[in-house]
Amino acid sequence: MNAHAAVAGVAGVAGGVLSQDGASDDTGLRILALVFLGLVLAGATVGGGLAYSGRWRSWYPDRYKMKFMPLAVPWFTAAVFFMGVLVGLDALFDPIPIALGAAGLVLAMLCLLVAGVYAIYPPRRILPRWVRYLEGDPSVSDPDRRPGT
Known about the structure:
It is a single chain. The protein has helices at about 5-15, 25-55, 70-95, 100-120, 130-135. It is mainly α. Residues about 5-15 have low confidence and may be disordered.
């Protein structure tokens, strides 16, 4: 028995039906997994948007070990999204055009860079106004004040 037959046997026992080239034929499970991943990414992005806008502030006073992680998560999810789009385009075009692949990879790497900066030590100027106000930045007035009041 060769290695491919052994892997196919184990995968078949685990519930996946394999085609001749080793790819799974269970399209419904793939679609369900993609929908689940999309919902998780959307939820993380919405949570990060709420954290940045100040509508979700309970995370701020050091509830996490990494103080600004809720601000980093949407950037990480954007990188995952760009990588998923690249994989999808590669499957669609086979092979993906090099310029399109390079652009998507650069966008994903930039998102990961911004996520890393937010997660490790964000500069004061990229923090939301309400965080800078709570940290005593003199250049920021009350962020909850309505214009004209």
